Amino acid sequence: MDKEKILKVLNETLALGRKDIPLGEVADYIPELGKADKNALGIALAGKSGNVYTAGDAESRFTIQSISKVISLCVALESRGYDAVFDRVGMEPSGEAFNSIVELDLVSGKPYNPMINSGALAIVDLLLGKYTFTELLEISRKLCRDDGIRLDERVYRSEMENCSRNRAICWLLKSKGIIENDVDEILKLYTAMCSLSVTACSLANLGLILANDGVDAISGERLLSSSTVRVVKTIMLTCGMYDGSGQFAVEVGLPTKSGIGGGLLSVVDKYLGIGIYGPSLDKKGNCIAGGAMLRRLSSEFGLHIFAP
Ligand code: GLU
Which residues contact 91 (CB under 8 A, 6 or more apart)? Predict the structure, then answer.
């Protein structure tokens, strides 16, 4: 497809997504997030040639939130290994909300997977002491090909002042011996990772690395191992969209991770990374317009992982 055709498709897709914006709500349980412009919407597509195609607010900065769980999981798998990660966190969909606490005091008490808050907090515990926030920021910049990524101090402070639920999750994990470090230190690093300011373009670039087996398509440098990338994409497919993951996998069929700040990171395996920003969220906490846009792109271009 030539550039003009791609841009036409992206703009049509954006117009379709816009129709769903009024049906959603901006997350406001972190007060600073509630200030986002509900009508903002952008999409970016990163292809292996190095071209990034965009429409709408693809350069607007917003906080990565839960999509940082993908980065933390990649780093934990690379540095601590598969066994250390899955000794403490499962790999099953939870069927519960992202910040659920109920299941932690049942059965094994192990968080269901690394894409929900409890699992991500346990992963951050593995990273603490091994990586400083500055080092993780550098890794995030490299994986996203975006030196503009910074800590959004306002969102960070706002979340730190309103994180009783994540604090409760940490204490429960601590009581079960699943995490070892100081709860405050875990919360600070987890929240800082959630407060990285990215754009739809940064997410598309990260998606491309995952689509391209962990290799930076432009420089040729391998940034992540094949095995890490395989695990991460599988968990994104089964658990990346909170308790809407099953339906999303059926309807769209692309490994995707959402964040409560309105971001979506999506992978068209072997071909493309897709990044979306739209802070109006559906009831499950996923970008409502982004869901519609990905459904359209997947069906029109046969992108579903099991497309014939
Ligand atoms: N920082 C948010 C929290 O821990 C992330 C939630 C999300 O994006 O799912 O509540």
Answer: 113, 114, 234, 235, 238, 239
Proportion of the chain above pLDDT 90, given as a percent = 90
In this structure, the residue with its CA closest to atom 9 of ligand 1 is 66
Q: Specify the ligand 1 atom closest to the Cα of 99.
A: 10
| Residue 152 main-chain phi, psi, to 5 deg | -80, 100
- For position 149, what pLDDT does the model report? 98
The 10 Å Cβ neighbour count of residue 226 is 11
Q: What crossing angle do the helices spanning 133-144 and 200-211 adopt, rounded to 10°?
A: 80
Q: How far is the CA of 33 from the centre of ligand 1 (A)?
A: 11
Of ligand 1's listed atoms, the one at least distance from the Cα of 285 is: 9
The residue to mutate among 198, 260, 265, 277, having the most atoms of ligand 1 within 8 angstroms of its beta carbon, is 260
Q: Look-up: residue for tokens 């792109």? A: 297
> Which segments within the chain are labelled E, that is strand?
25-26, 42-47, 52-56, 62-63, 197-198, 256-258, 263-268, 272-277, 280-281
Q: Is the pLDDT of residue 266 over 80?
A: yes
pLDDT digits (tens, 9 = 90+) for 83-120: 999 999 999 887 666 666 666 666 667 899 999 999 99
Taking alpha carbons only, the member of 127, 107, 116, 242 closest to residue 179 is 127
Burial bucket for residue 102 (CB in 10 Å: 0-12, 13-18, 19+): exposed
Ranges of beta strands (E only) in 98-240 are 197-198
Domains identified in the chain and CATH numbers: 3-62+198-301 (3.40.710.10), 66-194 (3.40.710.10)
Neighbour tally for 15: CB within 10 Å: 13
- Closest ligand 1 atom to residue 258 Cα is 8
pTM over 0.85: yes
Please state at what angle helix 117-127 crosses helix 164-175, rounded to 10 degrees.
70
